Amino acid sequence: MATVTELIAALPEEDLAIGSPSAKEISDVLSRASQQPVPVGRFRRLTALGTLQAKIGAAYLFHWLRGFFKSADENKRLLAETHWKTALRMLDSMTYLRGAVMKVGQTLATFPDIAPPEFVETLQKLHFDAPPMHWSLLKEMVNNELCDDPESVFASFDKQAFAAASLGQVHGATLKSGEEVAVKIQYPGIARAVESDFRNLTLFLLPARLTKDWESTKDQFADLSRRLALEADYELEAANLRKAAALFHEEDGIVIPRVYPQWSTARVLTMERLPGIHLREYLDTHPSQEERTEVGRKILRAWYRMMYAGKMFYVDVHPGNLLMMEGGRLGVLDFGFIMPIEGEEGELFRKMDRALTTGRIEDRLAANKEWCNLRDDETDRINLHEQYADWCWRPRYCGGVFDFGNETDFREGIRLFTEMFRRRYSRARPNTPAIARCQFAWRSMLYQLKAKINIRDIAEEEVKATGWDRSEYAE
Hints:
The protein is an alpha+beta fold. The chain has three domains: 125 residues; 35 residues; 200 residues, no CATH class. It is built from 20 helices and twelve strands. Strands 1, 2, 3, 4 and 6 form a five-stranded antiparallel sheet that branches. Strands 5-9-8 form a three-stranded mixed sheet, covered by helices on one side. A two-stranded antiparallel sheet has the order 7-10. Helix 3 runs antiparallel to helix 4 and helix 14 runs parallel beside helix 20. It is globular and about 65 Å long.
């Protein structure tokens, strides 16, 4: 009869590799994904998700079993290594599945402290190094969309994509008139894959049916599904790009790519190619405090301009969609996930603006109660929502220079959000998950920039430029 120690020693050793995944391991994962078409069928995608779930569960079970026979320090090391290995498995599955599943990975990579740091570091590859699909898997679809071979349509066309994301990838090309362009091509079958993802992911929400907020959770999930389906419509994205571009002038230092409609369809989008570097590369150049703060100002200026003047809520604020360009300019990319601020949403937006502007607790409570449908007797829920809303809005209503690099403050927001998630306080407007994702995304970027900004002044300038009459509550 084998001893317990011998049985533990016989457990699979792959999780005992020391340190983070090597560059070769990550490269192999990304390379495999580039050779595979997006799996479309609901069953195939569910099977892949189930396999991933089983592997994750096994990895942590093995860690837990080994922990009985290890010191505290050794157990801590083994846990970190288990995180690395599990993150690599997730990266492998997400780059294969793409679609909504990859969106989940990008979101985890945006929220430090919600996922283990090993997950965040590995899944950041989904922002910057997601593998493009091999040209042979795209060629037929692109030829059909453009009614010709791209090499005939353009003066030059690079079959190797220079960027890839959850729904499509981007190729460099040159127009016959000489302009450098970026051609965004949708993965074949991705719209069906996204629909399958949401039907499958609904299965993971089944336990939530027993909670009081199930109807709200269901509506929020349906809202995300609808908006991601709209993101697969490149004609809609082209319209959003043109609308946003009209809001900015050269002196703003904010650049939106020009659209070339004659070479764009519902699944192919041809845009001006903007030269620049992403946030990670920019920070590696060790910019000064003032330079980092100026980038933060432009991020906020772009966001508020679109919100107030354009009545469009730019949701996809993440490092992969922003470019630091020469001369201190900021390039803003990817306008597929835009929420129009109109109708009922527009009226609620005005009520939120009152709380954002005055900072009065009674205005904040009134806004929270309406947005989250809170009853007066739900004291604990009201208090937690109030604390979270105060964290979100404090930099705006307090005025003055706010230090977004304050680690204590940033972690407090993560703690409050996590506590609401833990208590399953999900009752709120259907678009709340998208707004929360956006809120943490721009706060995370300003935190990485260590920016120190008077956010109130920027917001007030943008509001006044629209002629919006707020005299009843604004100073």
